[in-house]
Amino acid sequence: MHFKDILARLHDGRHLQVAAWQLNPGEYWAITGTNGSGKTVLSLLPADGVVLSKGVAEDLPAHVSYVSLEAQAAQIETERREDESDLTDMADKGTLIRDFLAPLDEVEEWVQKLAIGHLLDSGFRALSTGESRKVLLIHALRERPDLLVLDEPLEGLDQNSRAVLSEALDQLQAQGQSILWVANRLDELPSWITHVAFMHDAQLVYQGAKDEVLAQPELQGLMHFDRPLPEFPTAGRDALVLEDGDPLVGMKHVSITYGERELFSGLNWRVEPGVHWAIQGPNGCGKTSLLQLITGDNPQCYRNDLKLFGIQRGSGETIWDIKKHIGLVSASLQWEYRATTNVLSTVISGLYDSIGLYQSTGDDDKVLALQWLEIIGLRDRANQSLQHLSYGEQRLVLIARALIKQPPLLILDEPCQGLDDPSRMLVLAFINRLAEQKDITLLYVTHHPTEIPPAIDHRLLFSAEDGHSTIELVEG
Q: What's the sign of the alpha-carbon dihedral 98, 100, 101, 105?
């Protein structure tokens, strides 16, 4: 593949610039760089997926398949558009996985390798982030592409799944499959990557043999977070007052069931103010479903014994009585946040617990939101559309949205998903400071145990077997 004098307009008004880039047979390239640098757009060039203002693209592969967070979001949006629940008055599962991957006999080996056989009769929207990532990969492989583009393929996967998928991809590469890898986490690059293209500010600034490119001092500087963490702005929220002995979250004999499948049962759990919990477990074990009981996004919260912020669920409270005490960052929120809004309004919406902003706001709200955008390094994007930002930049904006009101309970469901190294270091510094201060109580889901701060010393551990999870509480 040959690319020369490439110039292509991006959604945010900048132009992707590539003077020259050549990918030769036998070379395995990774594209890396900072969030919003144009990595994903560069990866679209081989499929002729970018409208060029100028430039030459030659010797492109006949068929390219993509696996990415953006592809997951696009499939979720397709499922929503085709949802017929309102017409049939019945819950529409959407596209079943067995239909999405059909014919199954062509992908049976991969279904077994990635252990998704129990998901075949589930709808795509019911899958966890990691499960849907596995399904999209199998779907891409079924098409037998000339080039397979993997944009952060290990993102959202539990430790065992990352190991299994890494081994499977090693085998696929050894069999001669052409692969282009897009990476935020440099430590996850496979050993067989031979060349690296490094993007910054929509320009291809370094390219060549992997070791030579990664050794560039300027690259090391761009991918390292070394500035002091500023003080957090004051939100001015009213303090939450609980009755003596009331926890932030109280659960008694809680269970979650989908059809005939019981995810877990008999959970008794209390979250006391200032006591932080890390929630860990394999893909699909029920972590996100558990958190959705708290946020009110799972209707089974009404058939369970839940007491949140001193309020017994089902006692006549509104969902806003609950949500006003919660800040949330998750993949599902990012997929749900489809409102046409700019970055500044997105952050302000965290003060009102809304998807989009539907009321007039004062100057104080705007000043506070701009302070948070300054902290995450996106103040210059305040007036841009949220949808014109990269996936990682959108994630940073949603983190600022969750923190702007300094909520009593902050739920972080894989907050570092899609972030480059410096942005991830920034967010982990946020989490560490919040955990130490104990003004905000954290529920933190991660598949990377090394990223759990020491101050988060309580664990809620899921283990799963045959589709049913058991939960262990480890305190202190």
A: positive
